[in-house]
Every structure is written in structure tokens, then in C-alpha cells.
């Protein structure tokens, strides 16, 4: 075995261990919050309500952290609609979505960015940087449209791969708007599920799900068809030599 290979393998082990511990922490938190449900959401709502006029701001802050802990955003958004109505509740939900994105991406960046870049290798890291530079904001927006992907987990991943915080925050605000309306409206109309607001929410959810499928397909094709800077330079050099 080449000594350089051995050295490379040894140098990668701390990064592998660090990422493994980070993933284990996230999975444990996901199990406790999303599966075992150790957090009493009704108690959270009562606590928020007790703060009076500050309740919307308090709910934004609390929901931002709870979302980063993998409490489903649909539950938080429905609670926002139930407490504050469809209009104010929508802005509260969007504020909470941005808060979750900021918290999760910041943690992801600090905990895993350096290790992730080492493990994917310099060429792939360069390609990721190129894609981020060309469309990091819209990658975040597109992800929010894709059904079945945890926004918190995606934000941890975006942070780990170095997408700028402002892109994650703004992309989260834009991309979360349709689903924020859906779940907030459903929460606001929970006592009258036959109201026009409930039907509008269901219609928006269906449209968003369809757009999400196309968004996922487009993002995948964009990733496959756009090489990084290093690969582009190499291709152009080969063309000049020919």
C-alpha cells in the first residue's frame, strides 16, 4: 500500500467520525421530537398565548428552534393559524420557517462544512461551489417545493455544503410560502373544514406537490448537466490542444 494512500485514509477518519456523530445527533433528535414526541405542542401553545401581545413574536422564535429540532413544520404552521388566524398566522409561519433555516444551516455549517468538503474531495467540492454560485438561492427555493423532504434536514445539509446564510434565509421565505399558506389556513379553518379557506388550502397543496416533482427533476438535471469550473477548464484545454 502506498504511504500517501495510508496518510489520506488516516486524515479522513476524524472527518468521517465527526460527520457520523453529527448525523447520529440529528437522528436521535428526530426520533425524540418527531417520533417519540417528547415535546408537548399544546403546552407550547399555552405558554405562547400567555405572553399576550408578544405572542406572535414569541411563537416565531420558539417555532424556529422547534423546527430545527425536527418538530414537523405542518404542526407548527397549523398552530400558528389556530392561534393567530390566516393572515397574521401566515407571516408568523414564514418567520418561523426562516428561523428554522437560519438555525439549522448555521449549525450545519459549523459542525460539518469542513468535514463534508474533505470527504467529497476537491473536485466535487469545486463543482458544488460552482453550482451554489450559479443557483444556490434557487436550489433552496426548489427544495421547499419538493414533498417528503424535511426542511430542517435540508437546511442542515445546505449549511454543511456552504450555501450562504442569506440565500438560505431568503430561499426559505420564498419557497416556504405555498406550504405555509396551506398549513396555516388549515389550522385557521380547523373548526370549519368545509370553509372556502380550507378548500383553497387543499388546492394550493395539490399544485405545490405537482410543482415540487418538476422542481426536483429540474434540479437533478441541472446538477448532472453543469460541470464545475475545474471540469470546464479541463474540457476547454483539451479542445485547444486538439
Automatic annotation (TrEMBL):
Q: Which domain of life, per UniProt? A: Bacteria
Pfam families with a match to the protein in the record: VTT_dom (PF09335)
Query: What InterPro entries has UniProt attached to this entry?
Result: TMEM64, VTT_dom
Topology with respect to the bilayer: Multi-pass membrane protein
Q: Where in the cell is it found?
A: Cell membrane
Q: Which UniProt keywords apply?
A: Cell membrane, Membrane, Transmembrane, Transmembrane helix
Primary place of residence? membrane
Describe the location of the VTT domain by residue ranges.
71-188
Keyword Cell membrane, does the record have it? yes
Transmembrane residue ranges: 16-36, 57-77, 83-107, 153-177, 197-216
Q: What does the similarity note say?
A: Belongs to the TVP38/TMEM64 family.
Name of the protein in its database record: TVP38/TMEM64 family membrane protein
